[in-house]
UniProtKB/TrEMBL annotation:
<feature type="domain" description="PPM-type phosphatase">
    <location>
        <begin position="169"/>
        <end position="383"/>
    </location>
</feature>
<dbReference type="InterPro" id="IPR036457">
    <property type="entry name" value="PPM-type-like_dom_sf"/>
</dbReference>
<keyword id="KW-0378">Hydrolase</keyword>
<protein>
    <submittedName>
        <fullName>Serine/threonine-protein phosphatase</fullName>
    </submittedName>
</protein>
<dbReference type="Pfam" id="PF07228">
    <property type="entry name" value="SpoIIE"/>
</dbReference>
<dbReference type="InterPro" id="IPR052016">
    <property type="entry name" value="Bact_Sigma-Reg"/>
</dbReference>
<dbReference type="InterPro" id="IPR001932">
    <property type="entry name" value="PPM-type_phosphatase-like_dom"/>
</dbReference>
<feature type="region of interest" description="Disordered">
    <location>
        <begin position="54"/>
        <end position="91"/>
    </location>
</feature>
Length: 391
């Protein structure tokens, strides 16, 4: 019997809400697993929530202070201590193309914890992650498990609009995070990977609550519509500008930063249409990348946009941040961009791109003068470049 193949077939045949139950039954039969539990990272990336309490703890576990959290952070399998029953918990990252979903915890008798079985279970965790992404089209089961509290309606709209929170390719790695995760309304990020291009957008609809979320939704979908038509980023901005102006006649606008990377060369096209800023870590030097400021989308009728050209070098780390990040004020009146943001970028330089946004936002939370958190967005892009062998 080929257990991983049998599990793959069983997962594809299982109801979308029963993936964990299916894996639990097969792992018990094929590997003698004593318990199996899936935990998913919450929207705030602070805890791991159990999908069900069938096996293991029924309460959220800290991402920063638990064996499961250590496996999630390192993205490597982690084995717990062997208990009096001569069995141990094994924690496997559930990740899809760099998107960190959660942890699969499997309790195995010591005699069954061989390197081959560990490899098999690592593969099972990968299979489960891919099936969860597909299953979420048809069930709320996993979306519900990611929540520690109810999302506002505006936040629900924003999260449904997003791509993954992290992504890895040969030439780059991306990580992004929104805060307040459960009450975000205007900030948003988007990206699209192609064979020779990476397109990135950061948007911030003016206003608050549902109004800001609806405005951002219009902008993101207008930009996607134009991007999928195969046109350049200046024309993408112009068409989205027209769509927003037609609806609001200048009474509402969206700040936007668009980037398009040419993967073979590292050449970057940029359109700065509003408040999001671009920062760069090159070596140990953190600088804000000065871009030609242009009008936010929807402010005036038929605005025209121009492309600026940049060059990414292997080893560069780029951060796109919203005004809720760089304009945040300390109790002494100091903007976060003055010293706090450069310091946070340097302090997180050894972290992978997926972990950087959360770490920077935690630094931001300590910097702010107020407990009230404005919309804040951080996107991190690590640029590796394309090797000669890679084309």
């Amino acid at each position: 019997m080929n257990a991983p193949t049998d599990i793959e077939r069983a997962l594809r045949a299982a109801p979308p809400y029963a993936l964990v139950e299916t894996v639990r039954e097969i792992l018990a039969k094929s590997y003698g697993a004593l318990s199996v539990q899936l935990l998913l990272a919450d929207y705030g990336m602070t805890v791991l929530n159990p999908v069900d309490a069938g096996d293991g703890p029924g309460q959220p576990l800290s991402l920063n202070n638990s064996p499961q959290g250590r496996a999630f952070g390192s993205q490597r399998p982690h084995q717990g201590r062997t208990g009096p029953d001569d069995a141990a918990d094994h924690h496997f990252p559930v990740t899809v193309r760099g998107e960190r979903l959660g942890i699969l915890t499997v309790r195995l008798p010591s005699a069954r914890a061989t390197p081959q079985i560990t490899d098999d279970l690592t593969h099972v965790a990968d299979l489960l992650g891919h099936e969860i992404v597909v299953a979420e089209r048809d069930t709320d089961h996993y979306q519900r498990a990611r929540r520690t509290t109810r999302l506002t309606l505006a936040a629900e709209m924003q999260w449904q609009l997003l791509p993954a929170r992290s992504f890895i390719a040969a030439e780059y790695a991306i990580g992004a995070q929104l805060e307040p995760a459960y009450a975000i309304h205007g900030d948003n990020f988007d990206w699209a990977a192609e064979g020779d291009q990476l397109s990135v957008a950061v948007t911030n609809g003016m206003g608050e609550g549902i109004r800001a979320s609806l405005l951002t939704n219009l902008a993101v979908n207008a930009l996607r519509n134009a991007r999928r038509a195969g046109i350049g980023i200046a024309d993408q901005a112009a068409l989205a500008d027209q769509a927003i102006y037609e609806q609001h006649r200048g009474a509402a606008h969206v700040s936007t930063l668009l980037l398009r990377f040419d993967l073979p060369t590292g050449s970057v096209e940029a359109v700065d249409a509003g408040s999001p800023q671009l920062w760069r870590l090159r070596g140990r030097t953190v600088t804000r990348v000065a871009l030609d400021a242009q009008l936010p989308l929807g402010m005036f009728e038929e605005s025209q946009y121009a492309v600026q050209h940049l060059q990414a070098r292997p080893g560069d780390r780029l951060l796109l941040v919203s005004d809720g990040v760089y304009d945040a004020i300390s109790p002494s009146g100091e903007p976060f961009a003055e010293r706090g943001l450069p310091r946070a970028v340097l302090a997180t330089r050894l972290l992978p791109a997926a972990a950087v946004p959360g770490a920077v936002l935690r630094e931001l939370a300590e910097h702010r003068a107020s407990d009230t958190l404005d919309d804040a967005l951080v996107m991190c892009i690590d640029w590796f470049g394309r090797s000669q062998a890679g084309g």
